[in-house]
Amino acid sequence: INRVGAHEDAASAIAFMASDEAGYISGQNIQIDGCRKRIDFSDVNEFDKLTLEEGVLLYDIRLSSVCEEGHIPYFMCMGPSEESEGYLKIADNIEIIYPDKNKLIVFVGEDEKVLEVLNVLKEKGYKNLYYYVGGYEKYASDKGPDFVPSVGCDC
User: What is the mean pLDDT for each group of 10 consecutive residues in the chain (155 residues)?
Assistant: First the structure.
């Protein structure tokens, strides 16, 4: 399946498992992933392990001015300078700078905008794309009071 999954994709399987038709099923894990590996992370420790891998590209695609006020250390501020510039240009820039479609790329930003960029990159053939569910604010909250954001542009 050549697209990033949405929450709605899981609805049918969940409805089935909650129905009487699934009454004889027990102890099963059902992968609702469109034949893909997991791309979204909501566990901060798991996400941090991913970001430490060798050669990984780390992008914060919030508006650049917002990102520069504070971002996850080592993440590059790659968002547009203003909302009207759009976010899909990010995918075009990645394709120009990193033509290796197997490169591991991790994003943080508003989920909806990140998913737009991920879908375009998937259509372009990129395979190893990940993001943190809930964006930067949730990441900072999940890290707790000891989290110290980087300030400025790590571009």
Answer: 63 84 81 60 85 88 92 91 82 89 86 89 89 91 93 74
Nearest CA-CA partner of 47 in 74, 28, 22, 67: 74
Sheet of 40-41: strand order equals: 40-41, 129-132, 105-108, 57-60, 76-77
Sign of CA dihedral 92, 96, 97, 100: positive
- Which residue, 96, 124, 125, 122, is CA-closest to 107? 122
Beta-ladder partners of 107:
59, 131
The CB-side HSE value for 124 (13 A sphere, CA atoms) comes to 24
Q: Are the CB atoms for 149 and 73 separated by under 8 Å? A: yes
List phi, psi (to 5°) of 7: -55, -35
Q: What is the DSSP string of 38-79?
A: --EE--HHHHHHHHTSTT-EEEE-S-HHHHHHSB-TT-EE-S
Write the DSSP assignment of 76-95 as a string of letters. EE-S-SSGGG-SHHHHHHHH
